[in-house]
Amino acid sequence: MHHATEGRPLAARRIPRITLAAVALACAGAAQATNGYFPHGFGLKAKGMGGASIALAHDGFAGVNNPAAALFAGSRMDVGAEIFRPYRDAQFVGQTPVVDSGRTAFLIPEFGYNARLSETLAVGLTVYGNGGMNTSYAPFPNGQNLLGGTGKLGVDLMQLIVAPTLAIQVAEGHALGVSPLLVWQRFEAYGLQGFAGMSSDPANLTNRGKDNSTGIGVRVGYMGKLGDRVTVGAAYSPRVRMGRFDKYRGLFAGAGDLDIPANYGVGVALQLTPAWTLALDATRIRYGGVPSIANGSLSQVMAGQPLGAASGPGFGWRDISIVKLGVQWQMDERWTLRAGVNKGGNPIRAQDAMFNILAPGVIREHVTFGATYTPDKQTEWTFALWHGRRETVVGPSVDFSTNPPGVNPTGTRIGMHQNGFGVQYSRKF
Asked: How many Å apart are CA 253 and CA 132, to the nearest integer?
């Protein structure tokens, strides 16, 4: 109680300037594709444990992992950054060479702040990149790209979320939390001139530069301690309704509509011994609830639905479930080691491979490692690294220059693998 009382004035003084610094930091950009286009975890401690976090309260990222965790995380600040290395490639089998996406290194920052105001109340702030997608394929020597347009082919999507958090104790050892989600996203597409004849608005299909949209959502959570060794948690965020990308209303279904899908999960953490902790999360991302992501691609085109229409083509992504398993070992008073695995579904089906040359979010499995060095009682340095195992999807390709269009059932192949490394500085108050 003495610690919480001392932390209250300090928290009040720090929040305004920390908020501004965090937003500026996170605007540096993000581009990732792991569990679909969501990261495999948030915060470097979670990333070192396969993403498991819903029943853990060991950092200031409650706003994205579980808002109720803010009550148990203490007063602290966490600033981290990672180097994300996705390797994406595509080809039309037997017709083109393999084409690699050009940019393979992205700096992704994240920020968490938490203040325990009393025994029953805590507040926090999380600033993070929810996810994104980036591809950039060079054209062939004749100037044409993989999808029949001219010049470079690709997309760039970034989603930034600022999540203030409030958590309250509802019974001893049990808390509820809520985080309003203030969302800003940016998108750009280029090289899609080959789809102009299929668009409801070809003037707003491609090469229109960057466009922005905003939205407001919410995440709610519960965390409870079932004795000294077992902690459980649950978190839910409904679909976030975003403003339209007007510059790309001829591309996304619904005249430029790209919402953030609902996502939810449950978790349990077991304190096996004073030194060993095991954490398990089961989560689900409802990509299938967002038409511009979920509508079939070639099926909608072949049915005569134009790009940008309410029932127009999307990327054909389906809902996926993910299991995140992590272990933590406090080796001594200075070092804590972590490891984990993350296994999920692939949202992309074979019949949608061709359109997903732009968004090859096919990774299904990650292996992760991490460590925290604690030089004193107030300071932590956390490290994490991970590898996403290579996955490929092979599906049909369509030649729209013929009437009727010619279909090769195994003509498209897309693939990806990825690596990442991150460092996080934490300060306890």
From this structure: 18
